[in-house]
Amino acid sequence: MTKLSYLDDTYTFEDTGTVQELGRDEKGGYLILDQTIFYPQGGGQPADKGFIRISGDDVPVSFVGFHDGRVRHYIPDTYFNQKYIGQLGALSVDQQQRELNARLHTAGHLVSHVIENLNENLIPVKGYHFNDGPYVEFLNERGVDVTALINGSNQQMATDIANTHAVSATLSDFPTISQLRPQLAPFIPKDKPSRIVTVGSYRSLPCGGTHVDNLKRLGSVKITKAKKQKENVRISYVLTEPL
């Protein structure tokens, strides 16, 4: 099992880890370390990028994945070298990308909270927090007209951000999370630590991603459109202010 140090602090961009294994799969060669600050892609959030300095080499990390409890750091073939096994590496995450990913992910949670608070019949079931078109998908079995909620949602998000609500994350367990969010239980991975993320006084959501520690770090968030997806509705949003 890889210790997931990125869960401890979003704003830790440098750390160390010992290389335990090299391997290959369909994505290419990878390193496995005893611990990592690199976020592996999943939960609607892209992977971190950066590099690991090992034995005098700056090894680029182009992708990070999670498999059977271990984090795979994918590296170029030119750096696939058995000499790294057992060596202590200096990990460095791309800070700009990490902070953007955290902002996008927390913004998605804020969208979820505000929308479901305005209409309890809308239940968040999926998030896509990539910069190329982030959205949150809601179960909408009763056919709620979501477009009528957009203006009110944007106003509420602006208020929440202005009030600088705190964002916190705590470890939990699957039974607790299943009771808190029964509709999301089927989507919660069993091979990752169970965690809940709380924004201000909103009802917590299960999440293993990286987040800002305060809504003031978001800048501003705006819902841009709502699109029907079978029984669901997809609500797209953007960060309208770079930080």
UniProtKB/TrEMBL annotation:
Q: Name one GO biological process term.
A: alanyl-tRNA aminoacylation
Q: Which SMART domains match?
A: tRNA_SAD (SM00863)
Q: Which residues form a coiled coil?
A: none
Q: Does the keyword Metal-binding apply?
A: yes
Keyword presence, Metal-binding: yes
Q: Which GO terms describe its molecular function?
A: alanine-tRNA ligase activity; ATP binding; metal ion binding
The residue ranges of the Threonyl/alanyl tRNA synthetase SAD domain are 194-236
List the InterPro entries.
Ala-tRNA-synth_IIc_N, Alanyl-tRNA_Editing_Enzymes, Thr/Ala-tRNA-synth_IIc_edit, Transl_B-barrel_sf, tRNA_SAD
- The name this protein goes by in its record: Threonyl/alanyl tRNA synthetase SAD domain-containing protein
- Organism annotation: Pseudolabrys taiwanensis
